[in-house]
Amino acid sequence: MIRLENIWKTYEMGDQKLHALREINEEIRTGEHIALIGPSGSGKSTLLNIIGCLDQPSQGSYSFDDTEIAHRTPQELADIRLHELGFIFQAFHLVPRLTALENVTLPMLFAGIPKAERLERAKSVLASIGLEPWFDHRPAELSGGQKQRVAIARATVMNPRVLLADEPTGNLDSDSGAQVLELLNERNRQGITLITVTHDPNVARQAHRVLVLRDGSIVRHIEGTHLQSLSELFTGFDSMDSPSD
After folding, report:
1. Looking at residue 67, what is its pLDDT?
2. In degrees, to the nearest 5, what angle opens at C-alpha 161 toward C-alphas 113 and 225?
3. What is the pLDDT of residue 240?
4. For residue 245, what pLDDT is reported?
5. Torsion sign over Cα 234, 238, 244, 245
6. Residues near 205 by Cβ (< 8 Å), separated by ≥ 6?
7. Cα distance between residue 191 and residue 32, in whole Å
8. CA distances from 89 to 183, 209, 217 (A)
9. What is the pLDDT of residue 226?
10. Using CA of residue 149, residue 165, residue 224, residue 240, what is the dihedral sign?
11. In angstroms, rounded to a whole number, what is the distance separating the alpha carbons of residues 25 and 223?
12. Within its chain, how far is the Cα of 95 from the centroid?
């Protein structure tokens, strides 16, 4: 489904070049759950943004369904983001003045789906994750876990083939984080490809495979029984912030 070949992302900073990604070569199959981990500044979010067609690589080839993304027009890329990809962020990114129901209808509004169908589908997906009593509540009236569940509903209401989650449990307490993680795992069990950036070993352990990034490169692949030993690996990561992450 997703093929990355010799992907580089380079930023010009005066006379210097900052390589956020270096020689990324990876293939992600339909239905996989991939976790991206590494210290801050390792390039995890940069890689996620390229996979999500929010950014373009400086060099290399990115194929989605055997079609080179670089050859797509801006409108075609927008259509891929709308119909094929779902995005979930640590900060939720809900529209404050809209209700939970209205937030979930937004992608369908952009897709030109009639209002009656938009409302029916939004109500159905919110009810399926236990948010029926909160249809008319705005984000300020919801807990962090409820906000993230609304964000998941919005990200999945168009039935995307790929879900991209950037620190989806980062702003949540343990119980809310566990609920959100189970929702994401359920979507993956239903066949949606799931790619998650995380600093949490408990989240990473849910994946089929873990890709460890450092200094813009994938330095290690972890899967199977080795996923249980991730905690020790995470303790070695620094917490410094960097624009490349």
Report:
1. 87
2. 155
3. 42
4. 53
5. positive
6. 227, 228, 230
7. 8
8. 15, 21, 23
9. 80
10. negative
11. 17
12. 18
Please give the structure tokens belonging to residue 115. 């209002």
The Cβ of residue 197 has, within 10 Å, a number of other Cβ atoms equal to 27
What is the rounded CA–CA span in Å between residue 178 and residue 184?
Answer: 10
**pTM of the entire predicted model:** 0.92
- Tens digit of pLDDT for each residue in 17-36? 999 999 999 999 999 999 99
Task: Please report, for residues 22, 31, 38, 107, 165, the alpha-carbon distance to residue 243 in angstroms, rounded to integers and kept in the order given.
Answer: 15, 31, 14, 29, 19
Q: What is the mean pLDDT of each run of 10 residues along the chain (245 residues)?
A: 96 90 97 95 95 95 92 93 95 96 97 97 95 96 95 96 95 91 95 95 92 96 83 67 45
Q: For residue 167, which amino acid is it?
A: E
